[in-house]
Specification:
184 residues; four-stranded antiparallel β-sheet
């Protein structure tokens, strides 16, 4: 039977940075030293076992972003592209806002602290209560090109700070609640 291949539009693996590998090595050394301070052979065994476990965890926990003609996979989650709505990419302050104050608690999230840009994909499936997916990517422009979206451009000039008035969600707030909290 011939093997049918699904054409990939995009593939990215969010591997750990070099400094995290150095941290795992240092932690392995510390584990070996603390559990066997006087026995050199036991120290080496424990340090090597801790290093192997830490390395396997770093490799296994690296999520992949795979976009095909029919699906979007982020980590272990998969959704058909027919249920995808607006796709927007964010960098810098806008990405930090989306991961922080602008985040909906029902959203699917797949973040890596060492990857700043994020992509937000709205979900249009009526049976799914997840409003959108928000995930880290090193190449938001390529993800957007593969899914058909746009990069978010901030109206703020460089060096401008975000205030309550300039914050994107400021229009969604209830003014009476804000005034009540200022008076308290």
């Amino acid at each position: 039977m011939p093997e049918t291949s699904i054409p990939l539009n995009y593939h990215e693996k969010l591997r750990s940075p070099w400094w995290l590998w150095v941290t795992v090595a240092a932690l392995s050394f510390a584990i070996g030293l603390s559990l066997s301070p006087t026995n050199v052979a036991l120290f080496i065994i424990l340090a090597v076992v801790a290093l192997i476990i830490g390395s396997v965890l770093l490799v296994v926990s690296a999520p992949a972003i795979v976009i095909t003609d029919s699906t979007l996979n982020v980590g272990r989650a998969t959704i058909e592209r027919e249920f995808l709505g607006e796709v927007t990419g964010y960098r810098g302050e806008d990405a930090r806002y989306e991961r922080g104050r602008g985040l909906n608690g029902l959203a699917f999230m797949c973040f890596r602290g060492w990857v700043d840009p994020v992509v937000k994909v709205e979900i249009t499936d009526d049976r799914d209560e997840t409003p959108y997916w928000l995930f880290s990517t090193r190449n938001p422009e390529k993800v957007i090109r593969a899914l058909g979206g746009r990069m978010h451009t901030s109206d703020l000039t460089p060096g401008t700070t975000i205030t309550a008035e300039s914050e994107p969600a400021a229009a969604d707030r209830n003014p009476s609640t804000e005034e009540g909290s200022r008076d308290a």
